[in-house]
Amino acid sequence: MYICLYIYIDHYEFVTLICSPIFCHIPLITVQAEARKLGLVGWVRNTEAGTVEGQLQGQRSKVEKMQDWLKSTGSPKSHITKAEFKKEKPIEGLEHSSFNVVK
């Protein structure tokens, strides 16, 4: 049994690097790396409101580790003042094959 969880992060300050010809947001890449390291799948993206949202899927213990990481550690280039996790639900199988940054 897997768990599906949505991420909502408000008041998210980040550093942007120019990776010609596109912009890369270091925190999202760091979130992606941590999620992949834990074996999670799903997605993350910046919103027009300047917040971050996403979805985590995987084993409960690994999703909980990612929640703790997002609340207490996060990207070294960011400052997260509030992280909310909503719409938790059990799922029979994973709906994604990897963890991606969505634009």
Care to give the gist of this entry?
With 103 residues, the protein is an alpha+beta fold. 24% of the residues lie in helices and 48% in strands. A five-stranded mixed beta sheet has the order 6-1-5-4-7, with helices on one face.
Explain how this protein is built:
With 103 residues, the chain is an alpha+beta fold. The protein has a single domain (2-101), classed as 2-Layer Sandwich (Alpha-Beta Plaits). The chain is built from two helices and seven strands, in the order βββαββαββ. It has helices at 26-37, 60-72; strands at residues 2-13, 16-19, 22-25, 41-46, 52-58, 79-91, 99-101. The strands form two sheets. The chain has a five-stranded mixed beta sheet, covered by helices on one side. A two-stranded antiparallel sheet has the order 2-3. The longest helix has 13 residues, at 60-72. Keywords: Hydrolase. One of its GO terms (molecular function) is acylphosphatase activity.
